């Protein structure tokens, strides 16, 4: 029965084991792999390569769509199999190797990886490993639960290994919109004017002569970790929903809002679930990842359509959606990430972007990626694609953590991912600061008044007042700007 998923007869003799396929990956190769936030990733070939690398001196450069599931990044890192990784990761073991300098990491806007490959600004992909539901008669491939950068890998890789995942129903055919924009200087308009517009084909084109191996798998994606809402995330969601309600009263938005993008994690889920009991209706999403909350809102009749590059959900939600795909197939679409995250579409559609910060400062600069300025957490992901181009750019974080030893609102961020010029709204569990139309000194006071934890408000006000006396368009005391971070490292708390 599995062989029926190879509908091009000439490829049936390419079937092999994962271990045999892993032998096709050689030391020093650039490898492209499907996978976007645990969805649609290589389930067996890359792990088999990691196992091989434990006893052989092998290192590769690995490009993906985003993070991989099944601890694959960790297995590769621990086996010493990675020399360079891009553009995003969330694995603890890999993160440790990156922060010690053992693995080089390129933290990249998720819309850019494919563009850089097409423009020949990155090394060419030697071999790609792509998960598919089946191979069509013309040799084209049907992706599974994500598209990511698979379209580009299929087009540009010198060789391709396909993992046919029989755990994924062939009914996924039709949920993907595969569109590849032309290379420069022949780039044309991408004709999407609403999230539900489909402009491409249903399968990824692939030259069958590139296929050097086909491996069968029967494994579901790693389930998403869905943390329940807590008092802080609930408060953040409440502040954002109240802000939206006020924007409607002012006539800036309607009860349908504009297409929403939300980052992954419990804050995003809490915000989206807040819409369930609100007056908003007929909502749409133009995002990167569809989570449990997306399908909960569809079931509640609040969300009419969602566009993204992957579906990353809990085990229960996976069964609900893909076990009953006829119910949902006209409610969502999966696209290549250089389409789901392309700046021009985000600007054209007027997307409302909601993303998570590690910390932000009193002028609205946001750090999304680094602890104390040096140690990477996960990566910028698509937050920059959306923040700079959104109708509304919203960043959220808790005001303080670790029993309030750490303030997430600071005099100056230790690393800048999103400058004050790209940030409209900042939200903590304490409150919300609307920074639109404000000069730096106005922004600082608004943030101090609305977003700072009470334990730090006086301390931050003192810093701003004394900096203002010294003068400047954006007042700072450079000798104190990072003193909060230094105090944390020395004394275990940012409090004086």
TrEMBL record:
Highest taxon of source: Bacteria
Entry GO MF terms: transferase activity
Residues in Acetyl-CoA hydrolase/transferase N-terminal domain copies: 10-215
InterPro entries noted in UniProt: AcetylCoA_hyd_C (IPR026888), AcetylCoA_hyd_C_sf (IPR038460), ActCoA_hydro (IPR046433), ActCoA_hydro_N (IPR003702), NagB/RpiA_transferase-like (IPR037171), Succinate_CoA_transferase (IPR017821)
Pfam families for this protein: AcetylCoA_hyd_C, AcetylCoA_hydro
Domain Acetyl-CoA hydrolase/transferase C-terminal: 319-463
Keyword Cytoplasm applies: no
Signal peptide range: none
Gene3D superfamilies: 4-hydroxybutyrate coenzyme like domains, Acetyl-CoA hydrolase/transferase C-terminal domain, Glutaconate Coenzyme A-transferase
Family statement drawn from the similarity comment of this UniProt entry: Belongs to the acetyl-CoA hydrolase/transferase family.
UniProt xrefs under NCBIfam families: YgfH_subfam (TIGR03458)
Listed name of the protein: Propionyl-CoA--succinate CoA transferase
Organism: Sphingobacterium pedocola
